[in-house]
Amino acid sequence: MQELLAVYQATSATAAAKERAYWGLIGAILLASVVLLAVGAFFVSASWLEGWKRLTSGVAALGLVLTLYWAVMQHRLGRELSLWHGLLRQVESEFAGMEFHRGAFRFQLGEDVRVPSTSPRSEEWYSQLVHIGRAGRASGRLFKALLPGGFLVAWVLLGLFPWICV
What we know:
Elements: H1 2-45, H2 52-92, H3 100-109, E1 113-118, E2 125-130, H4 134-164
Antiparallel strand pairs: 1-2
Helix pairs in contact: 1-2, 1-4, 2-3, 2-4
């Protein structure tokens, strides 16, 4: 039993590290993209600057590479994360009564999950059924897919703007 608990703790620590890496990457690239987009917008408005067209196109090319890297890494880290979460659920099934990751997985799938809640009047614990609807699950997946795609379109438009519109 101690060995199984040690495996569970090691798997949980690895999954937590993968989760931090996943969200850290998304946050860092999102911040870098916004800053780079602001620099590109400045270059578009600074037509008095020598070579502003090439500078704007260079920033757009850098942003395009950054966004492609973002999409590839988000996909790769997402698959790794789902693998580690699957391992956690598998190890967790060996313990009687543990529902941390299996319950979270069923919650993500939209199934009803019992969670402890408190009553506002009596301060007692009771179970409550909660679930995420189809629209909530779909909007999260759509947001993760459309955010890099939106930046990809923005980079292409930023790169072409100086050459077409001026």
